[in-house]
Backbone:
């Protein structure tokens, strides 16, 4: 078959999509592994390379629908109140008393992923997420 045939072009598109799908699945598997390998002594943190996790999040965030929750903390200048509230919230989310299994990812909170920065978690809401 020649490279210009319609079958060849369809084959190349399917091949590219298949490779991309495999990479997306690998990223999803890596992030879900954080839920299975949570070190309970470390407050629910998964010991893996934060750069790899950032790459996996970047790959999947472009496929995801956006859902944002803004947590209301104290105003600027509240001293250590925001930091204390942040740690209490993180500890609760990664504890066994939280409704959903969650693990804090080791991504630098100042590292931009897309247009987003902050603390990243992986959560199992249902068996599809």
Residues:
């Amino acid at each position: 078959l020649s490279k210009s045939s319609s079958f060849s072009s369809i084959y190349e598109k399917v091949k590219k999509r298949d490779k991309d799908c495999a990479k997306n699945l690998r990223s999803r598997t890596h992030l879900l592994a954080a839920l299975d390998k949570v070190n309970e002594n470390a407050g629910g943190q998964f010991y893996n390379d934060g750069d790899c996790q950032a790459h996996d999040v970047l790959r999947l965030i472009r496929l995801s629908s956006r859902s944002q929750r803004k947590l209301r903390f104290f105003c600027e200048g509240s001293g250590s109140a925001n930091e204390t509230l942040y740690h209490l919230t993180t500890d609760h989310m990664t504890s066994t008393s939280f409704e959903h299994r969650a693990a804090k990812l080791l991504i630098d909170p100042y590292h931009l992923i897309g247009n987003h920065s902050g603390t990243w978690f992986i959560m199992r809401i249902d068996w599809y997420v």
Summary: The chain is about 45% helix and 5% strand.
